[in-house]
Amino acid sequence: MTELNYSFPPKLRLKKAAEFKNVFSNPVKSTDRYFTLLATQSDFDNPRVGLAIAKKIIRKAVHRNVIKRTIRESFRIQQYTMTGIDIVVLARKDALGASPDELRLSLEKHWLKLVSKCASC
RNA sequence: AGAGUCGGCUGAGCAGUCGCUGUUUUAUCGCAAGAUAGAAUGGAGGAAAGUCCGGGCUCCACUGGGCAGGGUGCCAGGUAACGCCUGGGAGGUGUAAACCUACGGAAAGUGCCACAGAAAAUAUACCGCCAUCGUCUUGUAAAAGACGAGGGUAAGGGUGAAAAGGUGCGGUAAGAGCGCACCGCGCAACUGGUAACAGGGGCGGCAUGGUAAACCCCACCCGGAGCAAGAUCAAAUAGAGGAAUAUACGCGUGGCCCGCGCGGUUCCUGGGUAGAUUGCUUGAGCUGCAAGGUGACUUGCAGCCUAGAUGAAUGGCUGCUCUCGACAGAACCCGGCUUAUAGGCCGACUUUUUCU
């Protein structure tokens, strides 16, 4: 068994507007009170993630940053449970008051759910 | 020791580990651009915030001009500039240290001033006060009283936020700057001060209610848009440029008017949207020392380089310590202002009590 590399290089991120558009156009959804996640199959072996934290929902820049970091960190740790899918994470209002631990638990469920959903489609 | 005023500083720390990102460097691959791996080193704030002012920078408009519009408003200085800062003056608050002030003009004009009140800016006579005249009553008379008439009065009452200088003495029929003293106000000069202004004396019997964050007047200042500015490289697709011609109409140019430009047609040339790169951090920079200045600040010398992301980094986990951690996240860059903020530290000063 080879040693796993838990890094988070740019190739694991969604960057271009077109890539985001692709996910939004035909997604598999997974929602709870903190997040809405959208996902589609991609042509890559590795999963990719993009963040869409609306200023309208999370007003303070500090809180936005905290949520983004939590999502990125969770994705970094869990990346090897997923295959080649593109994911966009949208924050909901309740994410503002939640503790980092609550967010982490929620996200871990989401990743697994999306993998199984995408495998069936 | 208590209470308080002002100014400044700080904004949890340490270790391990897994990540992100800039720079430098080494190795490998590659013609190159670059990619991958390793190492070293840097990586949010005092407000990074609100976007309220002022600049730099960039493009557009520059032939100016007029009319609008906006801003500022005691004086002097500082500054790239400011609505900021410093010093000073005036007024106000506080025992004091200190703090606060949208602090030009109301005898250029216009408007507004509710209710109450007789009257609210051309002053006015409701009650009251005063003498005069007429009639009546009482009285021997002098005179007193009642009623009425046309007058004189702003001292008293009452209304009001405000009643046309205030207080006192004289004066008077009663009163009144009618006269005088003090205070206030105004005027011209003098003295001190760069000035705002202050000062003491003189003259004037007093004329000018408030409101200019009401219009307005006066003085001074202001072109527009913003890094998604702009520049470069550039798929797909023909919306772009130049020349000639036309100037009726439409559109644009800072809001309008002059003025100016563009749109039409013909011919010629090729172009620059998605995306990428750049702009992007060496700057009115920071630190120290010296000099000048009451100070804001300026000058000189020496040293230093201190975030630069772009779906957007500066974090996660574990352990330990303490006073158990507030407000809060750079997005072109500076100077201010304003607002938010758990605590902790330092300095100067005021005042009260006790002790010496």
Characterise the protein shown here.
The chain has 121 residues and is of the alpha+beta class. The chain has one domain (10-113): Ribosomal Protein S5, domain 2 (2-Layer Sandwich), CATH 3.30.230. Helices cover 40% and strands 19% of the residues. The chain is built from three helices and four strands; from the N terminus they run αβββαβα. It has helices at residues 17-25, 61-78, 100-120; strands at 28-31, 35-41, 48-52, 85-91. The protein has a four-stranded mixed sheet, sandwiched between helices. β3, α2 and β4 form a beta-alpha-beta unit. α2 packs across α3. The radius of gyration is 14 Å and the shape is globular. The protein binds one RNA strand of 356 nucleotides through residues 6-9, 13-20, 50-52, 60-62, 64-66, 68-70, 72-74, 76-77, 100.
Would you summarize the structure shown here?
The chain is α+β, with helices and mostly antiparallel strands and 121 residues long.
